[in-house]
Structures are given as structure tokens and as C-alpha cells.
Amino acid sequence: MHHYHRTAVGDDNIAEDEAVSVDVHNRTVTFASGKIVKYGSLILACGSWTNQLLHNSYLGLMNYITTAEQFTYYEPKKAEDLPLHETSEMPIIITLHNRPHFPDMELGIYCLPALRGGIGAVKVGQHQDGQIIRSLQHILPFKVQLPKLPVSRSSETIKEVPVEKDPYLESATNGFIQQYLPGLDGTHACSYGRCLYQLSCMKDYDFIIGAHWDAPDGRVQVATGFSGEGFKFA
């Protein structure tokens, strides 16, 4: 779960500790250090680790999946053209189209201009089309049917975010660069990173926010299903 985080419970401010379980009847949170803290009301915002905490707490799981995504960077073909691809000259680009067989879900590319004084490259990524992660840390609820999920490789699952580059995702961003930004070297990414995304599997694919049905009196609220993009709505 989280190895470095800060948790506020009552008058306590707990740093660099991991919440491992919740007792909704005694209203306590147990941490990896062994510390037990009482609560009056509780908000669980644990990202893609939400179901791990709920499972450890004998509470019903949330209906979402976790995917391993990739962001990539592309350099200009000519070093002198870098200013044309910086924030002062180049806009943020977002392309969207409907996913095959899922007309209500959008798939696309996002593109962020280079920052002056940064690594000298444009950041590009395919929006939420990575492999599904399935492990003890990232638990899939039983109600999720993998072949029916709106991701291109829904039949594939992996146990953790890979360190190596994903050629499938890179081919999508290479193609975008070659077609729309010819001033960049679209043959390969000069740098990349991997990250976690969440996808809500509710009927409307919306974020999951509300009281947990297994907790008495609505004292435990859950906010999840939006890791990777929730910050845009804050």
C-alpha cells in the first residue's frame, strides 16, 4: 500500500505509516507500525490500493480496475526548434474518440508542451489503455468481467507496474507524433515513465464517492476510481 504518506485521524497526524485495516464496529484504524487510532468519521481515499484495505477490513470491494499506464517524452528533430514546442508557443493537446465497442467511453492522446528549463521534450501519453493489474495489492472485485472491460488488452493481467517500456503504448504515441507534430522525432520516445491509473467499472464509469454500505451509520466514506485523473477535477 502507501509507503510514504500522511494520514490525519482525529488529533493525530501520522506520517510515513501504512493503514492496513479498519474496524467499523469499534471505529478504529490499525497501522503497519501497530498503532491503533479511533475515529468518529472516516474517509478512505487510498487510490488503487482501496480494495486491499477493504479486503483486510472484511468490507465489500469497490467496482474498479487498476491499469499500468505510460507517459513518454519526445525531442525536437532540431534542437533550435525546441522553443516552438514550449508552453509559450505550443498549446496543450487532447484528442478523443470513442473506444471500439464502448461508445460511451473515450480514448485518446494527451500532449503537454515542453517546460522551459526542463528536459527539453514534449510529454505525450495514451489515455488509460494499459494492461490490467491483478494482485494482492490491487484486487479485482468478483463482479468485474475482464473480457467486457473497455481496455484494448482486457484479457491480459499483470501483477505489478513493469519497469520496462510498453511497446504497444509507445506505438500509439509514436503514430500521433508522426502524424500531428512532425517537428518532433516520432520514431521513438527519448524518455518514459510508468504509473498507475484507476478505471471505475460502474455503469456510467463515473468516480466512486459515497458511504460504504458495510459501515454503520455512514461513518466510513470512500473516494476512489479516479487515480491518474482525479486532480483535474479538484
TrEMBL record:
Molecular-function annotations in GO: flavin adenine dinucleotide binding; sarcosine oxidase activity
InterPro entries given in the database record: FAD/NAD-bd_sf, MTOX
Keyword Flavoprotein: yes
PANTHER family registered for this protein in UniProt: FAD DEPENDENT OXIDOREDUCTASE DOMAIN-CONTAINING PROTEIN, PEROXISOMAL SARCOSINE OXIDASE
Superkingdom as given in the UniProt entry: Eukaryota
Names of required cofactors: FAD
Keywords for this protein: FAD, Flavoprotein, Oxidoreductase
Name of the molecule in the record: FAD dependent oxidoreductase domain-containing protein
